[in-house]
Amino acid sequence: MAVLLFDMDGTLLNSMPAWIRCEDHLIDQYQLLEKGVHNRETISQMGLWNLCEFISNLHDGAHSPDKIYSEILDHMEGFYCSEVEVIAGVRPFLEAMQAYGITMSVATATDHDLASKALNHANLLPFFDEVFTNDRSLSHKGESAYWDHIAEHYQLPKSDFILFDDAAYALRGAKHSGLRTVGLRDLKSEEEAMVSRQFSDAFYQSIADIDPGHFIEHWLKRT
Fold first, then answer.
1. Could you give the CA distance from residue 73 to residue 176 in angstroms, rounded to a whole number?
2. pLDDT attached to residue 36
3. In sequence order, what DSSP letters do the residues of 140-197 get, joined into one string?
4. I want to staple 203 with a disulfide (CB 3.0 to 4.6 A). Which of 33, 123, 183, 188 is the partner?
5. What values do phi and psi take at 161, rounded to 5?
6. Average model confidence (pLDDT) for the chain?
């Protein structure tokens, strides 16, 4: 039995431009560069609440995590609920996997409430058995605890999971934890894409480039 795990932002949904705008706002508003945060990955991998606490701590509590969280919601909730679009090729691939009877779930750094709203707006939620998130697992995709949480949920070995993701830190964490990985090109950074290839059993520009029949034959029938 195989379980397919899909990252959400940048893999299923064309939401990364909105997140980049949100991150740029946070970097400027809270002077993160001046505070020593020089790597966008540091922000991206945290999950929303952890990020809010991190920024608050950088400023010695002058800005509360609740206030920062509200700012992020102001930037992202409307977009997720009314504007976000499915990346080309995603829906036909999910339909093919569903027709084959494969269990699929989402594994995302976005908090559960926002992720569910986004997937519901995009009409993708019915494809998925579960939505795994940082705030529910109390860890992130770069940590083995995140993947342990999912494996324990399904009572399956981690070798039975296949992750589709465009983030190098997530692919690295999953690969080191024993999952199989399908890397997708990170449109934000060519350097990130090069790192992602190192931790991918296969690498594609996007899900649209994956032939469902070939994937079933070579990845699923051999599990």
1. 32
2. 77
3. -TTSHHHHHHHHHHHT--GGGEEEEES-HHHHHHHHHHT-EEEEE--TT-HHHHHHHH
4. 183
5. -105, 145
6. 90
User: For the purposes of burial, counting CB atoms within 10 Å of the CB of 221, is it exposed (0-12), middle (13-18) or buried (19 or more)?
Assistant: exposed
Per the structure block, which two tokens stand in for 10? Answer: 């940048």
Average pLDDT of 42-48? 68
* Tokens (6 digits) for 54: 């991190």
Q: What strand order describes the sheet that includes 180-184?
A: 131-133, 103-108, 3-6, 161-165, 180-184, 202-204
Q: Are 167 and 192 in contact (CB under 8 A)?
A: yes
Average pLDDT over residues 55-70: 87
Distances (CA, A) of 118 to 24, 39, 148, 190, 195: 21, 26, 25, 26, 28
DSSP code of residue 87: P
CA atoms within 13 A of residue 11's CA, in its CB half-sphere:
26
Q: How far apart are CA 170 and CA 5, in angstroms?
A: 12
- Mean pLDDT for 140-152 is 94
Nearest to 196 by CA among 218, 159, 163: 163
58 CB-near residues (< 8 Å, 6+ apart): 30, 32, 35, 37
